Amino acid sequence: MSHLAVDGRGQLLLAEWAFVSLAPGQANTPAELACLSVDWASATVPGTVASSRRELGFPDWGQLDLDAQDHWYRCSLELPESDEVSLCFDGLATLAQVYWNDELILRSSNMFIQHEVDVSNLPRSGTLMIHFQSLTAAPCNTATTPALADSSG
User: pTM for this one?
Assistant: First the structure.
C-alpha cells in the first residue's frame, strides 16, 4: 500500500501548497470557495498559517487572531498508480475537512489524532483541499458524518 503523508509517515507530499484566510463561514465547501475571488498565498506544509504568513513577510502575521478566521489549503498532485493508496494526516488543526477533487473524504475535530484515508478508488489526478474552521466561531457541538473517515476522539 502506498502511503502519502502530509507529515510524518510514508512518502511526504512534496507539493506546492497555497492558502487563503477568510471570514468564518464565507466558504464552507470547495464549490463555495470557487465562487469567490480570493488571493492564494504560498504555504509551507507541514506548517501553520502563522508561519507561512511570517515567511511571506505579511506585516500583520503576529497581530491577527488567526483562530477567528477560516483557512483553506490546496495543492494539485498525482496519486501513485498503486492498487492501494491512502492519504495520511498528522496533526490537522482541530476542526478540519479534507476534500479530494471537491469530494469530502475526512472530517476531523481533534488535532492529536492521526488520520489515514483510503483513496484507492478515487481519481489519481486532482486537487487536495483542507478547510480549517475558525475555532472562535465554531459551534459547541461538532457533528460528524458517519459515512466519512472521522475522528472526533
Answer: 0.82
